[in-house]
Amino acid sequence: MSITRVPYGGLSRKLVVAIDVGTTFSGVSYCVLDPGEIPEIRGVTRFPAQEGVGGSLKIPTIIYYDRSGDVKAAGAEATREGIALQAEEEQWVKAEWFKVWLRPKSTHPPPELHTIPPLPLNKTVVEVFGDFLRYIFECTKTYIQDTHSTGHTLWDNFGDEIYFVLTHPNGYEGPQQASMRAAAVCGGLVPDDAAAERRVSLVTEGEASLHYCIQSGLTAEAMKDGKGVMVVDCGGGTIDLSSYAQNGEAFEEIAPAECLYSGSIFVTSRARVFFEKLLKNTRFEEDVELIAERFDKRTKPSFRRQEDDYWIQFAAMREKDEQLGIRAGQLRVKGTDVASFFEPSITEIVYTIDDQNLSAETPIKSVFIVGGFAASDWLFSKVKEKLEELDIDVSRPDSQVNKAVAHGAVSYYLDHRVKTRVSKHTFGVRCGAPFDPYDPEHIERESTKQKSASGVWYIPGAFQIILPRKTPVAESKEFSRSLVRSSTHRGSLRTVSSQILCYRGEEGTPKWIDTEPDKYTVMCTITAQLDELVKTLEPQVTINDEGKEETYYMVEYKTGLLFGLTEFKASVIWEEDVGGPS
């Protein structure tokens, strides 16, 4: 099945720009939506300092700053001949791999994290991300103006009708998505937060890659007889795994999406650690950075056979040291050592694919590998070899595996084929459990019990589940739970707040936050003003321990979650009158 689009039915022209900021390389695709015209997705294939390479779809995710924090070079301009010397002379600071610092704090940090360059000049990751978005959007503007007939007039006609789709790893959650929207504002894509909510959409790299595979017609054969497919987006920082099955014209996620911090930069990081140990306390110790860079640019992408030796040129021809394997300024690296740098990533990919296949509701028989890291013949061949032992077919879509995410992100905006997603974790709220003197867990916590204004004894710190882990969720389905709050003072109920908690442990039905406190993180806090409702509250009466009447007020409301979209949304729902919820 491929996508057949109908003419755009909008009343005015608009532009959709999808920006894929990757850890090592970034790309842009776009679509001009003209009323009555069939939408066509195009890629930006010309960037500054890269015009002579015949149309590249990606630019390096690199920025140089001067000591004042101003951007001096970015993208391909940051890798042009002589730039390193100029940067050294003018004391510029280089920012690369900065996307890794946006990762959720709840993810297990990769062992090689210490090798990731720190953020420069006390800048935040949002500021650096915003600077790069500004640069790549300016490149897009120039490309459209120069490529389309009457391009400058075309651009001016868009006005505020420019909509953005930003892609992110499967593992990003609310805080990271909020940071990306903030970066869009910081980078001048949109003027403020309100515009960011309206004009900036977010989609996981896994789902964007699926849309690319659909529009390329790759899923038709793979999904015959109701079989599932998995898309594995192998990028510079992350490996994103997403599994789907087809239901009519729509697609459904059939297993929780996964995100591994085991992309291509970590192959280079393992190599750097190897070179550091090999050359420690030798006269070549200061050359480690250059050797690692040459390995990253030349040895890593060309590696195919572990039986061969590989030579990395890093010094003058006269340099040699037979004990270290250095001859004519080249360092010899055994193919088996290079293979060992890849091995943790390969093992983790295969293990996670197998694990996701076992947990999927539909058998997965086909895996599509996309992304820049997928261009590695060694990675692809070893993953394919191991998965074929599990009776899983593995393929790469085409030679342009690095355009899948940006193109697919535009397709996501236009076609929106995924209608059901699977919750990765358990979500809920902190609450008080009415005290049960016969419940062993309550007896154990009896010293913590408290009395509400309504006279009910309860145990604080209970966890009320709103959305269980591994639950298939349709986009339009809302999950909610009722909550009650009481107080002796009516005014204190005017504002109610609820923290949405995410439980990341393995317990199927977690009950108490104190049993695994490190497994709970705050997804967001939602606050509601109940002034009109509070005005209508009637006083209620309870009898205290001394037999006297006490007056209290009580409100009931629901905390709701809308999980089925690519973004997590929460709400507070209450009823002010018989006319229904407000």
TrEMBL record:
* Family annotation (CDD domains): ASKHA_NBD_HSP70
Would you say which domain of life the source belongs to? Answer: Eukaryota
Instruction: Extract the Gene3D superfamilies matched here.
Output: 3.30.420.40
Q: Which N-terminal residues, if any, form the signal peptide?
A: none
Question: What protein am I looking at?
Answer: Actin-like ATPase domain-containing protein
Q: Which organism is it from?
A: Hebeloma cylindrosporum
Lineage from the top down?
A: Eukaryota, Fungi, Dikarya, Basidiomycota, Agaricomycotina
